[in-house]
Amino acid sequence: SYTLPLQFVGMQSATFSLTGRNLKLWTDYTGNDPEGNVFGPGNGQGLDYFNNPTTKSWIFTIQLSY
Questions:
Q1: pLDDT per position as a tens digit, 5-35
Q2: Bridge partners of 44?
Q3: Measuring CA to CA, how many Å separate 58 from each of 15, 18, 55?
């Protein structure tokens, strides 16, 4: 995140943040996701039968202080 002081237009500051989740899977495994499974957390850990890949997400936030 980065905070930018704004002493004009009636504001005190603006904070910008950028967050990424699941951007890269660092492995030589050729399947979808080695942490995935279809049978719940206790059974079949590591099976990727009928699993979708983990979603990638970006979150951009702007916080304005008056």
A1: 887 778 888 899 999 988 887 777 666 565 6
A2: none
A3: 17, 7, 10
